[in-house]
Amino acid sequence: MPAVTIDKAYVKNEPKTATETLCYHCGIPCSSDAISIDDKAFCCDGCKLVYEIINENGLCDYYTLQSHPGLAQVKAIRNDKFSYLDNEEIADQLYKFTNGDHTIVTFYIPGVHCTSCMWLLEHLNRLNEGISESRLNFSTKEVTIHFSRSRISLRKIVELLATIGYEPYISLDDTSKQQTKTYNKQRIYKLGVAGFCFGNIMMMSFPEYLSQRTGIEEQYTSLFRYLNLLLALPVFFYAASEFFVTAWKGLRQRTLNIDAPIALAIIITFVRSVYEIGWNVGAGYLDSMSGIVFFMLVGRLVQERTYKSLSFTRDYKSYFPIAVNVVTKDGVVSKKLQDLKEKDVVQLHHDELIPADSVLLRGVARIDYSFVTGESEPVSVAANEKIYAGGKQTGEQITIQVIKPVAGSYLTSLWNHHAFKKDKESDNDNESVVHKLSKYFTVILFVLAAATAVYWWYFDPSMIVDSVSAMLIIACPCALLLSATFTNGNIMRILSNNGMFLRDATVIEQLGKSDSIVFDKTGTITHGAAEVVAHGHQLSEQEKDMLYTVASQSTHPYSRAIIQWLGERKKLIFGQWKEVPGQGVEAVVDEKLVLVGSGKYVGVIEPETGTTHPAVYARIGDAVTAFVIKPAFRKNVSSVLANLKNRFQLSLLSGDNDRQREDVERVFGQDSRLLFSQQPVDKLNYIDRLQRSGRRVIMIGDGLNDAGALQQSNVGITLADDVNNFTPSCDAILDAKRLEQLPAILKLATASGAVMKLSFVVSVVYNVIGLYLAMMGVLTPVIAAILMPCSTISIVIITTGVSSLIAYRQGLRLSEVNS
Amino acid sequence: MSALFVLVAISMVVAGAFLAAFIWSVKTDQYDDKDGAAMRMLYEDESGKQIK
Question: Which of A260, A319, A327, A520 could form a disulfide with A701 if both were Cys (CB 3.0 to 4.6 A apart)?
Answer without folding.
Answer: A520
